[in-house]
Structure formats: structure tokens, C-alpha cells
Amino acid sequence: MTYVDGFVIAVPKANKDRFIAHARLNDEIFMEHGATRVVECWQDDVPAGKQTDFFRAVACKEDEAVAFAWIEWPDKETREKGMATVTQLMQTDPRLTSEDNAMPFDGMRMIYGGFTPVVTLGE
């Protein structure tokens, strides 16, 4: 059964192009290690809430935008193996090392988690 990793981050608006370039490099690696699809999204129609919202979830500042992404895997086992490999590669693969492909956002404010789909329609 499909498994999904989801991510929400705050990215400085001035870093949008850097964010896209960073995502392209990193997403290739997830695909190389078992992911079937990776989607990176930039804030477009994100309302401010009265109690909770995407902005509060990642402590988004006025000069930042919310980015929302997910990685689809064929199953949790493939995800576990793929993520373990990617974690190891963070020390050696220049596409992942901070010196060569520094995160254009504050990774400490990223929220993420793994999810088992319970309803799937379409593709």
C-alpha cells in the first residue's frame, strides 16, 4: 500500500528560485531510492486562520511563504529503506551536503511526518 511523507516549511520569498533548485536536486535522490512521485508546492491561496493555519504551524514571517510538499512511496518498507539511504547520503552526496546545496529555509521550523493513505481517488 502507498506511503506518503508530507512536509510544510516557511521559505523566504526572496529564496523561491533557490528553493526550487534545492528541491530539484534533493527530489532526484528520493526518486533514485524508491519514491514514485515527489511534489513541491508554493503558497498560492493559503488563508490566515483564526486559531490555526499553515503560517502559524511553521512560524512563517511576513517576508516568507509557505511551501507544502509530499513524497509518495510504493509502501512503507520502501520508504524506510529509501529514507535510511538518503540519511546516510547526507554526509557524502554533494546534492545533499549543506556546503553544496544549503537549505534556503530554516529547517528547524519544518513540520513533517509519514502517512498511510486511508482514501485515494484518481491517479
Describe the structure in brief.
It contains 3 helices and 4 strands. The protein is of the alpha+beta class.
Q: What does this entry look like structurally?
A:
The chain is of the alpha+beta class and 123 residues long. It has one domain (7-115): Alpha-Beta Plaits (2-Layer Sandwich), CATH 3.30.70. 28% of the residues lie in helices and 25% in strands. The radius of gyration is 15 Å and the shape is globular. The mean pLDDT is 91.
Write the layout of secondary structure elements.
Blueprint: E1 3-12, H1 16-32, E2 37-42, H2 54-57, E3 64-73, H3 76-89, E4 111-115
Antiparallel strand pairs: 1-3, 1-4, 2-3
Label the overall shape. Answer: globular
CATH architecture annotation: 2-Layer Sandwich
Tell me about the biggest sheet? Answer: 4 strands, antiparallel
For the record, give the distance between the C-alpha atoms at the N and C termini, rounded to a whole number.
14 Å
Determine the fraction of residues in helical runs and give it as a percent range: 25-40%
> How many structurally independent domains?
1
Quick check: average pLDDT?
91
* CATH class category name: Alpha Beta
Strand numbers in spatial order across the main sheet: 2-3-1-4
Number of helices: 3
Give the percentage of residues in beta strands: 25-35%
